[in-house]
Amino acid sequence: MTQNSDLAVYACDPARSRGRLFYEVPAPTRTEYQRDRDRIVHSTAFRRLVYKTQVFLNHEGDLFRTRLTHSLEVAQLGRSIARSLRINEDLVEAISLAHDLGHTPFGHAGQDALHACTARHGGFEHNLQSLRVVDKLEERYPQFDGLNLTFETREGVLKHCSRLHAQQLEDQEPGGVGGRFLRREQPSLEAQLCNLADEIAYNAHDIDDGVRSGLLTLNQLRDVPLFDRYRADAQAEYPELAQPALQRRLLYEAIRRMLSAQVYDVIDATQTALADSHPADVNAVRTECPPLVRFSDAMRERSQTLKRFLFKNLYRHPSVMETTGRAQEIVRDLFAAYTATPQEMKAAFAEQASLDAGPLRARAVADFIAGMTDRFAAREHERLTGRRLLG
Predict the structure, then answer these.
(1) Closest by alpha carbon to 306, among 216, 211, 204?
(2) Ramachandran category for residue 295: left, alpha or beta (phi over 0 → left; psi -120 to 50 → alpha)
(3) Which tens digit of pLDDT belongs to each residue from 17-72?
């Protein structure tokens, strides 16, 4: 199936994809990137995201964002922007839905704990783990491990990578997705867009979840220009929203306006950057241009101010930090237990861990833990230690 001709010359065209690690006959009714998206949606790792933490752990409430709902919001924002830029919406959606597949249980707390546990063996990077999930850990097809996604989707999934791991990837796959980190090149515009849509989405929904949790207040958010401008605009247009009973509607309207302003800003700033650089094709985007998908300078500063506010007042709130400490203890205890007795893991991981007591075992244990949901990790910890650390 061919892609529609409305794509700009600098967009990724599935008919010109750099292909898959294992050749497959093209699908008759879907483009290559639509096929990638569908494989991601049907994967086990994608379903697990519904029980993986964003900020608030899975047991803390039914309405807080999870990795799954976050990924859907990133995809929605990304597609909206991609359409205006005339880049590939299907590829943006595929990358957005896959970008968090390698996240551990318990959000960044779990990631930090697992990184410390594996430090002697190269550490843990969630972006690299997402690539590992789609390249190796998913077991759905008789012909190959993983999902056998296109180069362009895999490139977008690996949005950050240390030089050490990039070199290892390049050694395994010369000319593959690790090479750009060694050559200091850029990914496709679609991949760049997913990175920024991720930031826009989590800043907005962390405000929503923070207020819903009671850890943030609208009064506190008056110190955040990016949010308070749109709160004031909404309240001026709808004065009744000042009533205490309507504060939730005021919050939603302010966030909606803030999101719209950021989307329009990215479109305008990126179109200006594209006009200045004038890339002739996708290869020029990667090798001849600076990052092109961007905020304006003013919006970037406002976004950074919001991030600093959230870091101080939400991510480092004593209530969040208390839960974070217990979540990290769970991950450390699980790593120690499985390393000592690999047979406690599922058979495939136990078999891999039995090959040696060093890097291969650490990798198998890390793969097993990283694939866990919050509630499964908590149950496993209680089974192995007899202690319940989380509700």
Answers:
(1) 204
(2) beta
(3) 999 999 999 999 999 999 999 999 999 999 999 999 877 655 455 557 899 999 99
